[in-house]
Amino acid sequence: xxxxxxxxxxxxxxxxxxxxxxxxxxxxxxxxxxxxxxxxxxxxxxxxxxxxxxxxxxxxxxxxxxxxxxxxxxxxxxxxxxxxxxxxxxxxxxxxxxxxxxxxxxxxxxxxxxxxxxxxxxxxxxxxxxxxxxxxxxxxxxxxxxxxxxxxxxxxxxxxxxxxxxxxxxxxxxxxxxxxxxxxxxxxxxxxxxxxxxxxxxxxxxxxxxxxxxxxxxxxxxxxxxxxxxxxxxxxxxxxxxxxxxxxxxxxxxxxxxxxxxxxxxxxxxxxxxxxxxxxxxxxxxxxxxxxxxxxxxxxxxxxxxxxxxxxxxxxxxxxxxxxxxxxxxxxxxxxxxxxxxxxxxxxxxxxxxxxxxxxxxxxxxxxxxxxxxxxxxxxxxxxxxxxxxxxxxxxxxxxxxxxxxxxxxxxxxxxxxxxxxxxxxxxxxxxxxxxxxxxxxxxxxxxxxxxxxxxxxxxxxxx
Length: 464
Ligand SMILES: Cc1cc2nc3c(=O)[nH]c(=O)nc-3n(C[C@H](O)[C@H](O)[C@H](O)COP(=O)(O)O)c2cc1C
Ligand code: SF4
Prior knowledge:
Strand order of the largest sheet: 6-5-11-8-9
Number of helices: 19
Radius of gyration: 23 Å
Bound molecules: flavin mononucleotide, iron/sulfur cluster
Order of helices and strands: HHHHHEHHEHEHEHHEEEHEEHEHEHHHHH
Number of strands: 11
Helix content: 40-55%
Distance between the termini: 46 Å
Structural class: alpha/beta
């Protein structure tokens, strides 16, 4: 399928890509029409100028490794994969001398429910990721990199491979890039669709050809990463921000956003909005503005709740969310997380018990099974929620749910355990009355108290 066919397909279904005109300027990913992803078009938009700049191939003096890292630190770019860790600081952990084995990895696994931004970046502007990775490799003296791409977006993987070939043919990747003496070999690798392979150490295991299960930490990848060598891992969108930072300066990027939250961010807005899609806006944009860009809550409905950072982030009630700005600090102050920037909008027709049950199914399904609290606990959460949703809840269930969630949190090898527990605790905290109503009446209070039982009682009984 040609790229513009993909764009047309999204538009026809009402699911927009990043590349429509409803954004707040400045946009790092501006000027994309679905067909102009290739090298010539990317260069016409100023692509690879940042790489030329650091290598002194633009007539300037070039930049040292320290200068590149200083610019990224100054920009206040924070990792777009979920945790929001400062990128420049992460880069400074890598020993910079060349000659030793070390690796750069791009995390394009993107399996968080609600998130669909990295897919669009790679599909419609793959060279921006390649350039960002080449700059990172230069800054940390890394000779080899991999982009680990989610297994279920094979066309995007093929697109990225094609872009890699173009870059190699133009001397922008490989040995002695642009005659500068700097060499960087970059490869694409595709996963098989497991959510857990987005966790950085599970990703490394998978990249090594093993079962994708998270490693104990410490040691962290900065000292013991791919094949046991120092490794820096960043998200696709994180790398995509780097060329702009180098071209315009760290201060300029910082000023686009707000202190401690530099630049723009792509928010994948989904759920009960008129125009679901990816929206690039400056950090600090008020949530109501983002909602307005997405066409507002679907017709005739009012906003009930929002999960602001992907399914792992605690849910926030409408009133709290409408006072937030879209940045790490504001969302964290409100009691949730900006995460990967997947904004799941729920209107007043949504049953919070049913929504949480569905989320819990996901975490039970995706638990890799290494840790007992996660392996067993995610199943217990789902079974109890299923019971409540289907009108067979018990008075003690809410307390037990909270206790199970509390006993998962902080007791597992990786953060999937926390990600499974946090939605449960936040849904019950903010919408307790709906859970209590389900337990007390066996009916749902949303939609006029319709009966909730959709499964045969015997079937639910088997699960519980
Ligand atoms: C269960 C789980 C899934 C994750 N999935 C992703 C993912 O799909 N993409 C991603 O970039 N980071 C994901 N992360 C975060 C990564 O472990 C890591 O923090 C991130 O790739 C670092 O890049 P950044 O600093 O640029 O954000 C996940 C973490 C956990 C615990
Ligand atoms: S928390 Fe869950 S997903 Fe993470 S390592 Fe433990 S069992 Fe696996």
